[in-house]
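Render this sequence as a predicted structure.
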Amino acid sequence: MTSNDYVFTTDATGLEEAAGSRKLGVDAVKFVRRGATYLPYLNTTDNWQSTITARNDGGGPAQVYLSLFDNSGALVCSSLVEVPARAAQTFAVTSATCPLAKSARVDASQDMVVAAREEQGAELNEYNGILASGGSEGWERAGATIHVPLIKNARYGRSSKLYVMNTGQQPTSANIQFYQSDTGQIVGSLVSYPLGVSGSVRVRADACSGATNRCTARVSSSNAQPLAVAVLEQDDATTQGRITYTGFSAGARSNYVPLLKNNR
């Protein structure tokens, strides 16, 4: 093929020796959204506010589209911005900017990493976004079945809530079963919550009872639609001391923990 058969574009790898000086030839150009990242839990109540941060990991500018949904899955706020390569964009979600927002989806034309943070004064709580595809299927990928390894119900003054979001293209029901964490025995009955497209629900851990008030859970969709799950744990008396982690779409025989502390 001759050079006339190609489209030429500037190298955007970020390599110093290539910056502004090297051209790449490609025989086809197609611009597509690189996928979606979901945030099933946002908080704008009781003087809390949420912040979404999206970093462009691609080699060129990214068109980033933020969609905010209420519990029914209705779009209540949106924003479209361009983010330079290796730069980050922050979106504030507050009772003033979008009071009905309960969950979010971030679409982009480049690979992105996304995190959500809630804050109230000195209290901060963060968790990573959940991908529609790609990433680790353990803790950052949506799935038709999600596994939750730790849930508390008034255990040493702390309790958990599950936030479940339908990331699929069809309405579904989220079926949740709790299990005793020490025996694996079923706790209570299977509970089911209808979810519209992009809809979400908050589930209390009241069913998690027994000698330890510590459970695990299995969250599955009724028709194989992918779900994103975040688990919030907090102090019962003050609602402070919050931590959030995401549910697992798959397990693994080996798991690595990069940091442990003991009275540090």
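Summary. The domain at 36-246 is CATH 2.60.290.11 (Hypothetical Protein Tm1070; Chain: A). The chain has one domain: 36-246.
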